[in-house]
Amino acid sequence: MTATAETTQPSLRDWLLSDRPQSRRQARLGRSYVTWRQFSANRLAVIGLLIIVGLVLVAALADVIAPHSPVIGDLTNAYLKPPGTPGYLLGTDDLGRDILSRLIYGSRWTLYIVVLVAIISAPIGLIIGMVSGYTGGWIDTILMRITDIFLAFPKLVLALAFAGALGAGIENAVIAIAITSWPPYARLARAETMTVRHSDYIAAVQLMGASPLRIIFRHIMPLCISSVIVRVTLDMAGVILTAAGLGFLGLGAQPPLPEWGVMIASGFKYYLDQWWVAAMPGIAILIVSLGFNLLGDGLRDALDPKESGQ
C-alpha cells in the first residue's frame, strides 16, 4: 500500500514540470520553476544576483552596519587616513569622513536612482512602443520620429543638457536620466508588438469585440514585459554610470550626500597620493554595474522564449 501511495503521489518537481497542469496556479508555478532552473544554471548570473541582493541588504541595514557617520568627519584625527587604518577599513577622505560608511549609505542613493529611473522610463517606453506598433500609420510615424530624435544624441550628453536645464540636484538628475532612457524600451516594445499584432491570437481577440486599449494592455503587454525587464536590468549599469557622471560634474547629487559620483569628484584631486578617496567609490560602481550586467545576461537567457523552447 505504501508503494502504491508513493506512485500515485507525484513529487513537487514532477508536479511543477507536468505538461498537463490542472490549474492556472500550477501552470504559473511551473513556468516560474523552469525559468529559475535555466537562470540558476548560469553561475555568473547567480553571482550577479548575489551582488544585487547584497546591495539591497547593505542599503537596508546601513544604519546598523556603518561604523561611522557618513557626513560627520574628524579632521583632527582622521584626515586622509589610508585603508587599513584601525577604525577606518577603507580609509578616510579630505574631511576626515569614513569612506566605508559613505559607501554603505551611498548604496541607498544608488538604489534610489536605479529604481526611480526604471519606474519612470520603462512604462513610458513600453506604452509608446506598444501603441506605435499596434496602431501603425501616422501615429507610428510621429512616435518613432520622436524616439529617433532622442536616440540621435548620446545618452550622457542629453542627460547633461536636461540636468543643466532643470538645475543641480539628485531628483532633477533622476528626471534627466529617465527622459533619456525610455527610447530603447519603446523600440523594443514596438518590435515585439509588430510580431504579434497580426497573429491569429490577436485576431481572435478582435473578433470577440475587445477594444484596442484592452488588446494592448491585456494581451500584448504581457508578451513584451519579459523583454523589457531584461533590457531594464542590462541598462541599470549605464544608469549608475550616468548618475555618477552627473554627480562628478556637479549636476547630480550635491555634497555632503554620500553619492558615489560625488565621492569620486571630491577625491579626484587626490588621486596621485591619496588614491583610495576616489578609487573606493569607483570600485563600488564597478562591482554593482558588473552585478547588473551579469544578472541581465542571466535573465535574457532564462526569459528568452527561443532559449526556453530548446
Give an overview of the whole structure.
- With 310 residues, the protein is mostly helical.
- Helices cover 73% and strands 0% of the residues.
- It is built from 14 helices and no strands.
- It has helices at 2-8, 12-16, 24-40, 43-60, 62-65, 99-135, 137-151, 155-166, 170-196, 200-207, 212-248, 260-267, 276-303, 305-308.
- Helix 6 runs antiparallel to helix 7 and helix 7 (137-151) crosses helix 9 (170-196).
- 37% of the residues are buried.
Provide a quick synopsis of the model.
Helices cover 73% and strands 0% of the residues.
Strand content: under 5%
Fraction of residues in helix = over 70%
What is the strand tally?
0
Count up the helices: 14
Basic shape:
flat
Average the pLDDT over all residues and give the rounded result: 86
End-to-end Cα distance, whole Å, is: 39 Å
> Structural class of the secondary elements?
mainly alpha
Q: Which stretches are poorly predicted, pLDDT < 50 over at least 5 residues?
A: 1-6
Measured on Cα atoms, how large is the radius of gyration? 24 Å
Note the main sheet: none
The SSE order reads HHHHHHHHHHHHHH
Keywords:
single chain, 310 residues, mainly alpha, flat, disordered N terminus
